[in-house]
Write a structure and sequence with these properties.
Layout (H helix, E strand, L loop, with lengths): L9 E5 L6 E6 L3 H20 L2 H17 L1 H12 L3 H24 L3 E2 L6 E9 L2 E5 L5 H14 L3 E5 L5 H12 L7 E3 L4 H8 L5 E5 L2 H14 L2 E5 L4 E5 L5 H13 L9 E7 H18 L9 H16 L3 E4 L14 E4 L6 H4 L6 E7 L2 H9 L3 E2 L1 E5 L3 H10 L4 E4 L14 E2 L2 E2 L6 H5 L1 E9 L6
Parallel strand pairs: 5-6, 5-8, 6-7, 8-9, 10-11, 10-16, 11-14, 13-14, 16-17
Antiparallel strand pairs: 1-2, 3-4, 4-20, 9-19, 12-13, 15-18
Helix pairs in contact: 1-7, 2-4, 2-6, 3-4, 3-6, 4-5, 7-8, 9-10
Amino acid sequence: MWTAGSGTDTLTVFDPTNGAEVSSAPQASPEDVAAAVKAARAAQPGWARTAPAERAAALRSAADALEAAADRLAGVMHAEMGKPVDGARDSIGAGVATLRQYAELGQLHGGRTLAGDPGAIDLMACEPRGVVAAITPWNDPVAVSCGLLGAALVTGNTVVYKPSERTPATGWELARILTAQLPDAVLSLVTGDGRAGAALAAADVDVVAHVGSTAAGRSIAAAAAATGAKVLLENGGSDALIVDGDVDPVWAAQQAALGAFANSGQICVAVERVYVHRAVAERFVDALVAEAGTWAGQLGPLVDVRHREQVHAQVTAAVRDGAEVRCGGQVPAGPGAWYPPTVLTGCTDDMAVVAEETFGPVAPVVVVDGFDEALDRAARSRYGLAATVLTGSMSHAQAAWRTLGVGTVKVNAVFGGAPGGAAHPRRGSGQGFGYGPELLDEFTATKVVHLEAPPTGW
């Protein structure tokens, strides 16, 4: 169901490579949000009664349609948030795979019977929660959205979807592809900035699923506390990379550069702070600076000038407080939102570039005297999303994954892992499963049923 909104404001997105206007979208009013939620509420019982195999078939058709539109959609994503087209196409491919994964898993998701009285039937049944509000980010707008939308839809929920105001056309295109395969109002789209997101989080919905900043996540959690909606949050992180004293510093620098600079640092689990053992620190930093030089010509811009200002402000504040810029750290002349891969040394834990999420191509380095010190300092964070440890010691690897209070620990690889991995982010990084088969559990409620035959003689 596509209708004109009642709002009069318009969002405008500018190409981060050159500052040219590339897209615009309406700012949904509170009345628009309420209407979308009302339509989703009305459509939900019918969608819940649809056979799981039919819901799965709709998701497979949507995946096929998304795959067919990948080149066009990659161009839209590139224009709105600057991700190179090849990387955008890969990201869309991940979204296609996610939809197909949930199409298969959704048909197998169910409850279980209980061992009760032989004369009765006892079971735990899974039911859709109802209406889901999905509020998604700009840094990976298709893949993240496909995860939340796929899992919510295949389990019988209806969804009101709000993409980031920085990638509204990408969200609009994705919604058009998916809704063509679904009954009316099973998936609705609203566009807008934080005002639309706030209205949606406070609306008559049963689940609010959000991937984005910690500040937005806290606001959403507060709004949902007033309505009783369940909240799923994957928020910011300040992911640590620990470089032990027994590793090859050149290899470690390659890992650090990949973690800090990929997608211009605009990845939820990007390397945001590096703790390097003094024994290899000098060689590691030299190699990391060299790696930054190889990445310089590969990076796309940051999403917009406003975000670049935030990234550069953290770098500037760190330098003012004693950090040294080893490379990068300067705003390039000319249009667009470009920012170079940057390496900082002499950093301390109280600098914002270490303590907070920078979300840019910046690698702040802290030198430590031993592995235990690195582990202790890495664990001192208000975030708990992910962390990486590079070490040749199995005992250090074991200590790391058992000690670090984060959802994901990676040993000797900054990225990677088996499909279907799902973890709980902690503290300021959120709550609830965001991926894998367990996400289906998040979008369903469990009902216990005890069923006996009526007494004889009626």
